[in-house]
């Protein structure tokens, strides 16, 4: 039972990333009808927002070091570099700001990712609304490659460790918390934080679409764009804003994932294909389907990674998601919660 619970926890952690990326993909497809293969790159850019803020907060200067001695014109004793935030706010406060750079990156990433999303939609995507899906895939996939090569040029090809705040490093005895013997289930703090954060973002997006006037208009536009336009509502502007929101969701997923998986330039591609499988399994255009499929496939992949399973079926963890996708699409061609008429023309 403890092994089952551990795999469920691992699946929820991975499924959270799948669900967040798939949610943004579905928002874009449902509103604009665009198959956005650059969405994984938005996840990557969010992760590098965290890297960038961490580097900015760590910038410092070398003060005059009274302990350094000079002999014959040569100085001995290296002076310690002091980060500017420690100089401005004091050593303890400045150190805390640097330590909490990943959560603080949320505030940094939201406007950056919304801006990137709006620029991407207005500058490129809008020209492909009425083009075939194959054209959309080619141009957005090309954009994703350009973005990842830009990141590779400025940040290098190696992963960049970006630690969680010290308060959330390490693991705790989750098994004892739920009644198991001590040290039965040891689980990292930050992975639970990520799951809680994903649940908060997903709940916020659904509440925004369900209970705000803006969201209601967007949902109406997803169902019947022409009729909403005839009512005098500028639905194109609202859809542009939704593209920005979808970019922000993907970016925030990347920001909070950095302590789990050190950011690198190809991490977006690693998640992109799996996220599209999640979207298709959940049903193209279905937001609840994308979230449900994300968590289900994450849990399934986690169970397939168990040692006992791999001994019996080596490599099954690498293909289990695709096998499930094939089975579901053979039995339910629209996916788990797909809508009639979506991508069926």
How many strands, what sense, and barrel or not for the largest sheet? 2 strands, antiparallel
| Percent in helix | 55-70%
Can you identify the CATH class? Mainly Alpha
- Mean of pLDDT: 84
Terminal-residue CA separation:
47 Å
Total number of domains: 1
Poorly predicted regions: none
SS element count, helices? 15
Protein name: Branched-chain amino acid ABC transporter permease
Organism: Roseovarius spongiae
Pfam families: BPD_transp_2
GO biological process, one term: amino acid transport
Describe the structure.
InterPro entries: ABC_transp_permease, BCAA_transport_permease. This is Branched-chain amino acid ABC transporter permease. It is found in: Cell membrane. Keywords: Amino-acid transport, Cell membrane, Membrane, Transmembrane, Transmembrane helix, Transport. This protein is 68% helix and 5% strand. Helix 2 runs parallel beside helix 6, helix 2 (39-58) crosses helix 11 and helix 8 runs antiparallel to helix 11. The protein has helices at 2-32, 39-58, 84-89, 91-99, 101-123, 133-155, 174-177, 189-211, 213-223, 225-230, 235-257, 267-282, 287-304, 307-312, 316-331; strands at residues 60-61, 69-71, 74-76, 82-83, 171-173, 186-188. It has 345 residues and is mainly alpha-helical. The chain has a single domain, classed as ABC transporter involved in vitamin B12 uptake, BtuC, CATH 1.10.3470. The model has no long low-confidence stretch (mean pLDDT 84). The strands form 3 sheets. It has a two-stranded antiparallel ribbon with strand order 1-4.
